[in-house]
Amino acid sequence: MIPIEDYTEVEEFSDSNQHYLLPKRPFRLLIAGASGTGKTNLLLNFIYDYLEFDNLFVCAKDMYEPKYAKLKEKYTMFDGVDFDKILVKYPKKKKIMLELFEKICKKGTFFSSDTKEFITVDDLDPSRKNVVVFDDCMTDKDQKSIEDFFVRGRKKNATIIYLSQSYYREHLLSSEETAII
Predict the structure, then answer these.
(1) CA–CA separation, 63 vs 69, rounded Å?
(2) Cα atoms in the Cβ-side hemisphere of radius 13 Å centred on 32
(3) Distance between the two ends of the chain, CA-based, in angstroms?
(4) Strand order in the sheet with 28-32
(5) How far is it, in rounded angstroms, from Cα 134 to Cα 178?
(6) Residue 100 host element (H or E)
């Protein structure tokens, strides 16, 4: 008889907010599909609702795409704001404001449209849950920096997500450990 595991118990997974159907973090994920198939939309659903992370790093060729602009706005809307002053000014909203602060403001974020200006794998803090996203970077001639994330990112506690229009051109993602959607 073949043993069948029961995966209905979410408690098995260490990340309380991470969906139980996602691979155990840190993981590598390739999301491939033609233009207009919802790759970015799927990614944003992961980010907003299913992934637990401390740092979010996004490198996308078109950071001004409305979906990325909204993501960037959400995670940078309190940059430069004195949160203590807000709590003093609105004491009745303290609980809601603190929840918002925990959910958004404590997360480190970095957005770039150029892989040459993007972080390196050595910049990642392994004590934090890192999510690194590459979108539409397959046309970059130098894939070495992206390859470094796939090879060394797991040791830096980094989940790496790569969005592409073509599965067949992504030789750097051919690792057996890369989940493919």
Answers:
(1) 6
(2) 12
(3) 31
(4) 108-112, 55-60, 130-135, 158-164, 28-32, 178-180
(5) 14
(6) helix 94-100
- By CB atoms closer than 10 A (0-12, 13-18, 19+), residue 68 is buried
Place of tokens 């840190």: 26
For 56-113, how does the pLDDT look when each residue is reduced to its tens digit (9 = 90+)?
A: 999 998 888 899 999 888 888 777 777 778 788 888 887 887 777 777 766 788 888 8
- pTM greater than 0.90: no
- Please state the φ and ψ torsions of residue 136, each to the nearest 5 degrees: 60, 45
| 56-66 per-position pLDDT tens digit | 999 998 888 89
